Amino acid sequence: MLFIYAGVFVSAFIWLWIIYRNDRYEPEPLKVIIYLLFAGGLLSSIPSSLCNVLFAEITGFMDSFINNKTHLLGNSELAVFSLFVGFNEEFFKSIVTILLVRKLKDFNEPLDALIYSMTVSLGFAAYENIQYAMMGGISTLILRSLTSVPLHIGLASIWGMGMARSKFINGNLKLSNIFKYIAVAAVIHAVYDFIQFKLNFELLSFAVAFMFAVVLIKFSLWRMKIYLYDSPFVGVLRCRNCGYDNPLNTVKCERCGEYMTFRFYKICIECGTRNGKTADRCCECGKAF
């Protein structure tokens, strides 16, 4: 038992380090990250797990899952269950994240949305790993650390993008603003689960799961890198056209002459100050946009 808990902790710590190391310019307080990992993971995993079990009982799928015979179920039955699991888990992870971070003063740059969403999902995956490791042992924990954990992290980066847009472009953090991002993550999650339920060959199952994990984690790290340079705390303005690093008050790129544009900010052409997307006037010089 203690060995399993230690293994889950080590796995979570490694993935947390991978996430947190990308928050370079204005790192979130470690106490906030730890809180989101444990509290967010627990608050999202318990209700989603109960809903999964309840749905499996109602639909009569429980025996197939307990006896590892899901591959014998019909495609339509598995598709329905996979879609339910996908939407159920992504919904609870996202709503818990929103509730926990919506009033955080440290939520002050777009990258934070990805950091928060991925951290809560890592906590979710860690609690899941405890349950699965209890049943399958340390080998199951290792396999899930290479597949399911990065899957959950990568899926979270998708609706984390929606959180960033809702907060910094729409001006408020609402579930309705990010629902389409949750839906995309849920469908990908459902496809992953459907394939895993149908496959009855462990090596092939691992190969497919690992492929999903690699693609999604690479996607999430790529998005984090992009959002990193949209940070108001970065010391340069990186041109989206040619990649040149310009001084902070640059209006046009010094190399290619393109106007500096950002996903989440407006650059005042008068003084070069970075303003929120919803701003009507520059907060520094008062020029109307």
Describe this structure in words.
This protein folds into two domains: 2-228, no CATH class; 236-289, no CATH class. Helices cover 65% and strands 3% of the residues. It has helices spanning 2-20, 30-59, 62-66, 75-101, 110-136, 138-146, 148-168, 175-198, 202-228; strands spanning 237-238, 245-246, 265-267, 274-276. Strands 1-2 form a two-stranded antiparallel sheet. Strands 3-4 form a two-stranded antiparallel sheet. Helix 5 (110-136) runs antiparallel to helix 9 (202-228). It is elongated, with a radius of gyration of 21 Å. The mean pLDDT is 87.
Task: List its traits.
3% strand, 2 domains, 289 residues, two-stranded antiparallel ribbon
Layout of helices and strands:
Blueprint: H1 2-20, H2 30-59, H3 62-66, H4 75-101, H5 110-136, H6 138-146, H7 148-168, H8 175-198, H9 202-228, E1 237-238, E2 245-246, E3 265-267, E4 274-276
Helix pairs in contact: 1-5, 1-6, 2-4, 2-5, 4-5, 4-7, 4-8, 5-6, 5-7, 5-9, 7-8, 7-9
Question: What is the gist of this entry?
Answer:
The chain has helices at 2-20, 30-59, 62-66, 75-101, 110-136, 138-146, 148-168, 175-198, 202-228; strands spanning 237-238, 245-246, 265-267, 274-276. The chain has 289 residues and is mostly helical.
SS content category: mainly alpha
Q: Report strand order across the widest sheet.
A: 1-2
Principal-axes shape call: elongated
Task: Work out the number of β strands.
Answer: 4
Mean pLDDT reading:
87
Low-confidence stretches: none
For the biggest sheet, the summary is: 2 strands, antiparallel
